[in-house]
Amino acid sequence: MSSKKKPVTTPLHLLQQLSHSLLEHLQDACSAAQADAEKLLAKLEKQRGKAQDKLHDARGKLEAAAAAGKQKAQSKARAAIDELETLLESLQQRQADTRHYILQLKRDAEDSLKLAQGVGKVRDAAAKALGAREVAARQVSASAAKPAAKPKTARRPAASTSKTVSKTPAGQAAPRKPSASKAVVAKPAAVPASKAADAAQVS
């Protein structure tokens, strides 16, 4: 079974996938074009080798026909030689063109990959943005999963009477206020009666 691709959920996902696919297709296309050109060059080289072998055989037949004085065989050998020489020239030209194409293809591939670095930066930026979004989503879900803390009730201070009681050492009575009778100032003593009578006579 073929693995199912994850659905694109946001424009950032789409941007990341498109830029990644573009880079992959570009690299694959460059590699495939170079591989095809190399295969064509190898095929031309093989054809050229076979044509050279046939040309060598045709020249040998021409020499043998000339030594035997066979005009018809000589004519046939010359025609084969001309055809093979033309084929060799064509194969050599195609080989030269293919080598030039391979060199140009390598330069184009390098230039294309350099220009595509901007696409790679776009892909990396999209991936970074998606990663930051996932981290933020995890933090939000983690904070939501924690139970809410119960508010602490403030304790009221104890009454002042309890503080005074606690400060008094055990076994000692609290100091009492002076009674009102002691606070009254004593009146002056009465004047003797004899002194009062003397004072009356003098007057």
TrEMBL record:
Residues 137-160, 178-203 have a biased composition (Low complexity). It comes from the Bacteria. Residues 137-203 are annotated as: Disordered. This is Transcriptional regulator. The lineage of its organism: Bacteria, Pseudomonadati, Pseudomonadota, Gammaproteobacteria, Pseudomonadales. The keyword GTP-binding does not apply. NCBIfam families: AlgP_Nterm. It comes from Pseudomonas fluvialis. Residues 23-94 form a coiled coil. Keywords: Coiled coil.
